[in-house]
Amino acid sequence: MEGTARVALADLWVAHKSAVEAYVRARCAPDLVDDVVSQAFAVAWRRLDDVPPDARAWLCGVARNLMLHEFRSDRRQAGLVVRAAPLVQADPGAEEPALTRLALIRAWSGLTDEQRDTLAMIAWDGLSAAEAARIAGISRVAFSVRALRARRRLEALVHEQDAIGLHDASVDPPDHVSPRRHLERSRS
């Protein structure tokens, strides 16, 4: 039996390690990624009979719960951390795209942790609504409603940035410490 379990775990590792690692990397400090991924697969080993056929979403849900527990226990973060680094790439090419990115970054920082995580699971992690719902521990319909509200809120915040004249060059960028930087600072 143990040999079969080892093969099953190895198959899970080969099939889903990179997806789980990408999910975790987008949400926590780099020095915690390997630990969280390893712990997620350790849970899979202990609960191998509970692993569903669509293991990717289940493993990401386990990793999410591990990160939430870590952040709560260390009192570093109230919820899941989603970094905005992919939005802040150097050399945007022109002033208008740079200002658009700045508006998006400011709008992104105005979302709740839950709204950022919802949008990130769909846009950055490429999860379906059903997979993301399993990770979040809610129904697919509830997740779809959550995603719709998060998109609408993000759009409203971007439009609000336009209305207050973000495209005026005199407007300073946000004095915002990314969640990842906050996490790294709190470990020092």
Helix content: 55-70%
How many beta strands in the DSSP annotation? 0
Chain-averaged pLDDT: 76
The CATH topology of the largest domain is: Arc Repressor Mutant, subunit A
Q: What proportion strand?
A: under 5%
Regions with pLDDT < 50 over 5+ consecutive residues? 75-90, 167-188
With helices defined by DSSP (H or I, 4 residues minimum), what is the helix count?
8
Oligomer: single chain
Report how far the terminal alpha carbons are from each other.
45 Å
CATH superfamily of the largest domain: Winged helix-like DNA-binding domain superfamily/Winged helix DNA-binding domain
Shape: elongated
Structural class by secondary-structure content: mainly alpha
What is the total domain count? Answer: 2
| Reported CATH architecture of the largest domain | Orthogonal Bundle
N-to-C SSE string, H for helix and E for strand: HHHHHHHH
Radius of gyration: 19 Å
Largest sheet: none
Assign the CATH class of the largest domain.
Answer: Mainly Alpha
